[in-house]
Specification:
metal-binding; holo-[acyl-carrier-protein] synthase activity; 10 strands; about 220 residues; single chain; five-stranded antiparallel beta sheet; three-stranded antiparallel beta sheet; 5 helices; globular; 4-PPantetheinyl_Trfase_dom_sf; Ribosomal Protein L22, Chain A
Length: about 220
């Protein structure tokens, strides 16, 4: 599925189960030392997907660690090998990772969610009024509230490596286009200052792709 939402030049890997016998690489165990079994399996399998995707680019296997200092968001974000950008996602029954060369792709963000309605009350806290107004007019058959949440998560994952700043759910306005029965595109317009840490072109919006398949929603942004 993941190959359907990423462009040429982006390597990807996904799995619907946790393969037996895989283990974290040196340095990764400390990150999950106190994690419950479910969290450990998600972490290990998702990073295994990331290394398999890296291998498609000819990149040697390497630990994918996290920052030991900084904000909680920075501590949670993966640290990729030099010259590589990537993104990881996991939900019940699905893990995936995408990677690319930094010379080709500026930043990546993917997210996967179950294709089901958000819990009651969550939409109000993860969207802006303009988004909710549009979702109310959308045809039935798709869980647009969960799709919006999924696109917001991909937006944050694309944003954070370039800015090292928080981006709230209310800080991006997302609009969707439906190009197939269960697929389409979206634009994530940023509502806050888009200055980046390397002094490059400020961020204004992201173009993304979405797809619903096998009971999951996938969203992807590849910023060039």
């Amino acid at each position: 599925m993941i190959e359907q939402v990423v462009p040429s030049g982006v390597a990807s890997m996904e799995t619907f189960a946790d393969p037996p016998g895989i283990a974290p690489m040196p340095g990764e165990e400390a990150i999950i030392a106190r994690a419950v079994d479910k969290r450990r399996r998600e972490f290990i399998t998702a990073r295994d997907c990331a290394r398999k995707a890296m291998a498609q680019l000819g990149v040697e296997p390497a630990p994918i660690l996290r920052s030991a200092t900084g904000s909680p968001q920075e501590k949670a974000a993966p640290i990729w090998p030099q010259g590589i950008v990537g993104s990881i996602t996991h939900t019940d029954g699905y893990r995936a990772a995408v990677v690319a060369y930094k010379l080709q792709i500026r930043s990546l963000g993917i997210d996967a969610e179950p294709h089901e309605a958000l819990p009651e009350g969550v939409l109000d806290h993860t969207s802006i009024a303009e988004e909710r107004a549009v979702l109310a007019t959308r045809p039935s058959g798709l869980h647009w509230d969960r799709l919006l949440f999924c696109a917001k998560e991909a937006t944050f994952k694309t944003w954070f490596p370039l800015t090292k700043r928080w981006l709230g759910f209310e800080d991006a306005h997302i609009t969707f286009e439906q190009t197939g029965e269960q697929s389409g595109t979206f634009v994530s317009k940023l509502l806050v200052d888009g200055s980046v840490i390397d002094g490059g072109t400020p961020l204004a919006s992201f173009d993304g792709v979405w797809r619903v398949e096998q009971g999951f929603i996938l969203t992807s942004i590849a910023l060039t």
